[in-house]
Amino acid sequence: MCGSAATLVATLALAVTPASVGAQASVTANNLDLPDNLTMLTNPDPNVRRATAVVNGHVITGTDLDQRVALLVEANNTELAAEELRRVREQVLRNLIDETLQIQAAEAEDIMISQAEIDQTYARLAAQNNRRIEDMQTYLFSIGSSPISLKRQIHGELAWQRLLRQKVAFFVNVSAEEVNELMQRLEASKGTEEYRLGEIYLSATPENAAAVEANALKIVEQLRQGGSFVAYARQFSEASTAAVGGDLGWIRLPQLKNAQLEAVAQEMQPGQLVGPIEIPGGFSILYLIEKRQVLTADPRDAILSLKQIQISFDQNATQAANEARLQEFLAGVQSMRGCGSANQIADSIGASVVDNDQLRARALPEQLQQIVLGLGIGETTPPFGDLQDGVRVLMLCGRDDPEVQSGPNFDQLMQQIEDERINRAAQRYLRDLRNDAYIEYN
């Protein structure tokens, strides 16, 4: 047991021992008619936090749990009901226990994560959230968490990844024949769809399957109410992709190596969430981020040069006056001969023009994507808008089509197969760590 943990446990033990408290009372407080033997119902020292669990001697306190839960609650963007919050706390405690086991296993192999590495990752997370380091600290305190809590999670993720590279990845072998066979199948599947999926995997045994499934259903419910898939994957998923928010990257469905998951994913649309799906060893929750055709350029990746031509209306004008203005606008747009005349004619009818020369087609609203991609240079979309916000058209002035994707190369496919095998081995490794652990709960 480390020094700080031992001190905390000893302090807790002394604080609630009836005999020691009673002896002190008999000497100093008999004039208050207090009993010689009393039992304290609460911790008399508010600065000492009661341990929630002790994992191989490492104390996980209520503060640790509260601050980690706060990260998830904030990412959820909705207030959790009392029952849901209780379930989340139980799951986060299990995650903290796993995290502790992972750090301890890494340290047992002389794998130490330096504070500089942790701080660097913390700074990168702050930058990704458009915050300075000092602002990140203020933000974390404001939601009931702390930099210490987030850095502990970073420590756990880095330690586990490094341990897997040393103890698992080193023994995973992928032959060139396997990779070449996969490349041939990939080429044969040209034009079929490729999926970018997010996953949350929860392991289960026959004994606890019902409870794990109920937990997965609660997670799905929270996600459908606006919870962050990335945050829930980082906190709850037991797959190695948890560290990247559950993102599997671009895959073909056979790479899931599960007929049921393949069938479900094939019917999904981007943005759709499905689960829990029972699979061997547990349950999966899938989220389809995007899909595209294998080895085929996606037109939505085209870079467009557009002019937005817009008029506004006088809210105090009569309906007839605004209708006349609209007709003048439509006639002016129709008279335009490509982008070269657009600005001059727009000025003559009192319209404004906004240019965008580097807009990816997929960034447009979905209902406009196919319309714009069907335009020739100098053509405009049908007018859209209303009296309140104005009416506008988009004119296509240029289009750079994407190059055909060459697909993953030999090294990338080999890495993908290795990652899959490492993930399966990591799940077994963590189960072994749990089985061998000494864990005390309060």
Question: Summed up, what is this model?
Answer:
With 442 residues, the protein is of the alpha+beta class. It has helices spanning 3-15, 18-28, 62-76, 82-108, 115-128, 133-142, 147-167, 176-188, 209-224, 229-236, 259-266, 319-335, 339-348, 366-373, 410-436; strands at 51-55, 58-61, 193-203, 247-251, 273-279, 282-293, 303-311, 352-360, 384-386, 390-400, 439-441. Among the domains are: 193-293, Chitinase A, domain 3, CATH 3.10.50; 299-400, Chitinase A, domain 3.
Tell me what you see in this structure.
Residues 75-109 form a coiled coil. Residues 192-290 form the PpiC domain. Keywords: Chaperone, Coiled coil, Isomerase, Periplasm, Rotamase, Signal. The model is unreliable at 1-31 (pLDDT under 50). Helix 4 crosses helix 7, helix 5 packs across helix 7 and helix 8 (176-188) crosses helix 15 (410-436). Helix content is 49%, strand content 18%. Among the domains are: 193-293, Chitinase A, domain 3 (Roll), CATH 3.10.50.40; 299-400, Chitinase A, domain 3. The strands form three sheets. Strands 4-3-6-5 form a four-stranded antiparallel beta sheet, with helices on both faces. A four-stranded antiparallel beta sheet has the order 8-7-10-9. The protein is globular, with a radius of gyration of 30 Å. By secondary structure, it is of the alpha+beta class. A hairpin with a 3-residue loop joins strand 9 and strand 10.
